[in-house]
Amino acid sequence: MSRREHTVPARRGKAIEVAAGQEFRVINTHGTQVLDTWAFAAGDTSTFLSMAHTRSYISRIHIRPRDMLVDNHYQPMLTVLEDTSPGVHDMLMCSCSMPIYRRMGCTEYHDNCEDNLHAALAEAGLSSPHTPAPLNLFMNYPVGADGGFSRFPPVTRPGDYVAFRAEREIIVVLSACPQDLIPINGETRTPTDALVALF
After folding, report:
1. pLDDT tens string 97-118
2. pTM of the model
3. How far is Cα 14 from Cα 37, in angstroms, rounded to an integer?
4. Could you state, in order of their start, the residue ranges of all structural domains in the chain?
């Protein structure tokens, strides 16, 4: 089986072309990194992986192996094949952005997943007029009985991965989340790189 690898640099985004039927793994190299994850139909960024539609489709707020993840037209886009991590991911929260960092007290520019998405698309010659809600792989934001969120470090181990199959030709975009003000990327609050392997 041939393998092609792409590094998602710490604090940055990466756009990757994935063929219909191709499998890929999102690997948490260091075990502490959250990866905001998007997917767009090849040639049509108005069709994108939708967390709202996927929650409706799977009737859950967490992904599991064999789940079908769908686009904003309720059509199949990705299938979850395997998850070697403890399975703690988030599909409710928006990506971090400059308005969020300003609310947290930043007075100067802070790297953020929203800008990483658009920069990665631009590097691939694409654009999107909006920022879809991402699948936040490895993010540990449990929902309490009162409906409130908690924000904890990932419970992932180094090398844990989630494997997917593309159900059509897509562009996958990942952002190695640059959040360093709270410990969502580990207790040291240090964003790290990650790896995507295509098969």
Report:
1. 999 999 999 999 999 999 999 9
2. 0.96
3. 10
4. 4-198
Phi, psi of 163 (to 5 degrees): -105, 140
- What's phi and psi for 47, nearest 5 deg? -110, 115
| Residue 180 DSSP SS3 | coil
Q: For the segment 130-181, what is each residue's pLDDT rounded down to a tens digit?
A: 999 999 999 999 999 999 999 999 999 999 999 999 999 999 999 999 999 9
Q: In Å, what is the CA distance from 105 to each residue of 98, 101, 136, 149, 179?
A: 11, 6, 23, 20, 13
What are 13's two structure tokens?
A: 């985004």
d(CA 124, CA 132): 18
Q: What is the DSSP letter of 104?
A: T
Give 124-135 pLDDT, tens digit per residue: 999 999 999 999
pLDDT value at 2 more than 90 = no
Q: Which residues, at least 6 apart from 59, have a Cβ–Cβ distance to it below 8 Å? A: none
- DSSP per-residue codes, 107-165: -S----HHHHHHHHHHHTT---SS-PPPEEET-B--B-TTS-B--B---PPTTEEEEEE
CA distance linking residue 136 with residue 153, whole number of Å: 13
